[in-house]
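Progress note, sequence design subtask.
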């Protein structure tokens, strides 16, 4: 997949505000402070496209970005941040859960997992939630530049028990660009399938341990 252009489209706080455009959606989800905004900026090559913050829990809405004028990248609120109030947590949780459960145009969910902490219970719960709703998902291990090669392999192997559920595992570094082309290639397969073209599908699962 070659990204020619990417732009912020809109933020929504309720399902009745979702876009009318029938574009396929690639959804990005993960714990607060896992680096979703940084990854989106790196992936699209648009610095500042998604707003980054040193404060976990900054993303409080469903944020839509148009990519190549024919698909959406969707940034969901982060989960698992303890200092967010209970009321806000419930709101985010319901919004996130309802969207994933009901979204008709979701082609793939990209679950970001901090490579330094690959065994977080909340991430495992999200995997189970996605599998329960039959959502194909791939795992991106973020911040892999902070690990040595042997530790990157160890982190990926810690998730091997999920390999029957997940479509792929990619090590990613927004700093070096490691994993960018691999991830774009993975995404392209699901957009190809959505457009009725030949490409990687759920039946062509690959787990990357590089």
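Output:
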């Amino acid at each position: 997949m070659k990204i020619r252009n990417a732009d912020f489209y809109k933020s929504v706080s309720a399902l009745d505000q979702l876009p009318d455009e029938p574009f396929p959606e690639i959804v990005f989800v993960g714990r607060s402070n896992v680096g979703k905004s940084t990854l989106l900026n790196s992936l699209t090559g648009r610095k500042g496209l998604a707003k980054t913050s040193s404060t976990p829990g900054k993303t409080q809405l469903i944020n839509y970005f148009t990519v190549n004028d024919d698909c959406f990248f969707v940034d969901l609120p982060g989960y698992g941040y303890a200092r967010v109030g209970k009321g806000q947590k419930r709101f985010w949780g319901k919004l996130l859960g309802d969207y994933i459960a009901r979204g008709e145009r979701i082609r793939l969910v990209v679950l970001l997992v901090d490579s330094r902490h690959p065994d977080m219970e909340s991430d495992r719960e999200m995997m189970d939630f996605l599998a329960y709703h039959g959502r194909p998902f791939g795992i991106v291990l973020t911040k892999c530049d902070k690990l040595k090669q042997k530790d990157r392999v160890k982190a990926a192997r810690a998730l091997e028990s999920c390999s029957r559920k997940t479509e792929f595992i990619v090590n990613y570094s927004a700093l070096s660009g490691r994993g960018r082309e691999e991830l774009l290639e993975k995404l392209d397969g699901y957009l190809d399938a959505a457009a009725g073209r030949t490409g990687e599908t759920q039946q062509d699962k690959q787990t990357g341990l590089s």
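Confidence is low (pLDDT under 50) at residues 197-210. Work on this subtask will continue into the next period as scheduled.
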